[in-house]
Amino acid sequence: MTDGPRVSAAALDLANGKTYASGEGVFVTASVVKVDILTALLLTARDAGRELTAAERAHAEAMIVRSDNDAATALWQVVGRAAGLDAANARLGLTRTVADPRWGLTRTTAADRVRLLRQVFAPGDARVYVRELMERVVPEQAWGVPALADPGTRWAVKNGWLPRDATGLWAVNSTGCVTVGGRVYMVAVLSDGHASMAEGVARVEEAARDAVRRCGGAAAPTRAAPAARMPAAGAVAAAPLKGAGNCATSHALPAPANAAPPPPHGGAD
């Protein structure tokens, strides 16, 4: 038996640093951990004084843009599996994220997801690459955080969804950057205990809207408006879009501390 769905949300206003958090607890990441894996890969390459290989770049694109699990597993090996991911996340200041040997069952909190987003969207050439991929997520995965976006503004997202074998209930998560009411927010919503993926998506989007509103933002739209997307692969930088906010804009953030639902992502119980 369960007590019903759990939902935890966190939001950060990039302009003034105001934060909001609701709910508590630790959740399985499902595929949102793929941002951690890519960030760990970039740290691994930097430490070795090298660029990503062509194969690593191909895996990274598939892992983030299409949420490909085989690509994630390949890069999981490169970064050193659970121990390597834990080491990388410690360097980034994530204090409540613990990797699991089955990467999709890594545990985390909404607050740690926002901490990671701060690092991803801080200035830096390597981080531009992560943002670029998150802004090119395939349309069928553009739910959750993008549903809040002002019309015509960029958003960036990595979602995760996973039916749990033990209960048959769904974990549904959404993390990313979005412009709402002309202000840029980092938003993370983690949840579990849903009877279906669709139910989870609806609850996640409701929680994301509430987090942004309570963080001081204007009311977010109830449906996703058509959003401008990143250019095709290869264009590392793009001219800012018209409008008051843009998730691709650099911000002065703290440096690191040292239809039918798609197939489930993130491993199995």
Task: Describe it.
With 269 residues, the protein is α+β, with helices and mostly antiparallel strands. It contains 7 helices and 7 strands. It has helices at residues 33-47, 54-65, 69-78, 81-91, 110-120, 125-134, 197-214; strands spanning 6-13, 19-22, 27-28, 107-108, 156-163, 170-180, 183-192. A 5-stranded antiparallel beta sheet has the order 2-1-7-6-5, sandwiched between helices. Strand 1 and strand 2 (19-22) form a beta hairpin. The radius of gyration is 17 Å and the shape is globular. The chain starts with 5 loop residues before the first strand and ends in a 55-residue tail after the last helix. 47% of the residues are buried.
List the keywords.
269 residues, alpha+beta, five-stranded antiparallel sheet, two-stranded antiparallel ribbon, 7 helices, 7 strands, 32% helix
Draw up the topology in text.
Blueprint: E1 6-13, E2 19-22, E3 27-28, H1 33-47, H2 54-65, H3 69-78, H4 81-91, E4 107-108, H5 110-120, H6 125-134, E5 156-163, E6 170-180, E7 183-192, H7 197-214
Antiparallel strand pairs: 1-2, 1-7, 3-4, 5-6, 6-7
Helix pairs in contact: 1-3, 1-4, 2-3
